[in-house]
Amino acid sequence: MKKHFVKAASLVVSILGAGTLMTGCGQKEAESITFFNYGANIDSETLQAFEKEYGITVKMDEFDDMDAMYLKLANSDVKYDVILVSDALMPKMIEEGLLQKINKENIPNIQQMDEEYLNLSIDPGNQYSVPYMFGTIGIIYDKNVVTEEVDSWDILWDEKYKDKIFMFDTYRDTIGMALKRLGYSMNSDNPKELEEAKESLLEQRKLVDPKYGVDNGTTMIAAGETALNMIWSGEGLNLQDEYPNLVYTLPKEGVNFWIDSLCIPANAANVEGAEKFINFVSDKESALRIADEIGYTTPNKEARLEQPEHVRNNPNAYMPKELMDLSEIYLPLSPETKQLYDNVWTQVKVNLS
């Protein structure tokens, strides 16, 4: 696995130079597709290989927040041909008609996907989506500081590690973790359970004074500023590869399992090109390159077989069934439940410096 996300030098990634193809004495504008991607979660070699294979320019635009992506598609006339959609947003975007059904006859490489990541509740039958990557939220710890076994979310409440704990400053992840620690669903809509989760997070603040953030957690634990962090699996596994003292693990209570998928917006201008692109990046060779570059696990079962043994058989990357059964995808929250979560989060974060 590589140790960082690939960074796009430009929003337009093309090996076709000026973007036009000469035909006879005239010029013909090159065919293109627009890809709205979560960060630069793809490798440049795959993009170049696709363009060479099909003569289709890939114009990539990036977003760093799924809700912002949704708002842009829902409230503007902007057109994209392929977009990356999270599990939590998938049902909402399908219901609101923002996505179109995919002709799977044109995506034969979907057959390479592990059945465990197909036909999920977010899109039964994968009518609108093709799995792209998946991962978890777990704990990374410094084994030079934390000497006992790390197998439960409880350790994030251990007073021995006061000032050395890092929590996600994202309401769904942190409240969800607190719910799971208490034995409840990460998608709970029960006011009593959410109240318990709030009280436990307030107790944690008194016990260990955790640091809150998002991406800065990766640098903090690497620098020794923290010793126990909530972290996304890709970053956790990459840090573990790079630093011998760091270990990524999944708590026994269960974790958030997330899956991002490729979809075609309802107003896509180049559906045929979008289908070619989705099929191309779903192939074993592309999936293997992408997983190696960005550090997340691939739903492509054939690509997984080609990964190094320490990756493909790592239970903290590809979860065993017993832990998978305890883990949950985030489901959309009703407006009423979302208000409950917002109220909890406001009280947890009040006066937090």
Brief digest:
With 353 residues, the chain is an alpha/beta fold. Helices cover 35% and strands 19% of the residues. It is built from 13 helices and twelve strands.
Question: What would you note in describing this structure?
Answer:
The chain is of the alpha/beta class and 353 residues long. It folds into two domains: 12-134 and 259-312, D-Maltodextrin-Binding Protein, domain 2; 135-256 and 320-349, D-Maltodextrin-Binding Protein, domain 2 (3-Layer(aba) Sandwich), CATH 3.40.190. It is 35% helix and 19% strand. It has 13 helices and twelve strands. The protein has helices spanning 44-54, 66-74, 90-95, 171-181, 191-208, 216-222, 233-242, 271-281, 284-294, 301-306, 309-312, 321-326, 335-349, and strands spanning 12-13, 20-23, 26-29, 32-38, 57-63, 82-86, 130-142, 165-168, 211-213, 228-232, 246-249, 256-263. Helix 4 packs across helix 5 and helix 5 packs parallel to helix 13. The longest helix has 18 residues, at 191-208. The chain is globular and about 60 Å long. The two termini are 35 Å apart. 41% of the residues are buried.
